[in-house]
Amino acid sequence: MDALNAKNKLPKMILFSLNPNDNAMIGTIIGCFQSSEVAGKIQQGAAWWFNDTKRGMIAQLDSIAELSVVGNILRHADRFPFLPILYQT
After folding, report:
1. How far apart are CA 89 and CA 71, in angstroms?
2. Nearest to 11 by CA among 46, 35, 44
3. How far apart, in whole angstroms, are the C-alpha atoms of residue 71 and residue 75?
4. pTM summary value
């Protein structure tokens, strides 16, 4: 991926693993190859056979949220008082 990116030939991709334990690693790698020219250039997908249960879907969403902009916003919710949805009562 780095070689393609260096030549500006990295296509839009969706990455997923056959092992759900790799989700955090994939999420981290994806962050290294984002581009301001192309929104969502590299995305994390899900192998459907791991996510055909409620527990699997929640685990996938948790993994993506922890390593994304959503995770960053939630970790720093006190800086965003104009977003009341972040504050749970």
Report:
1. 19
2. 35
3. 6
4. 0.62
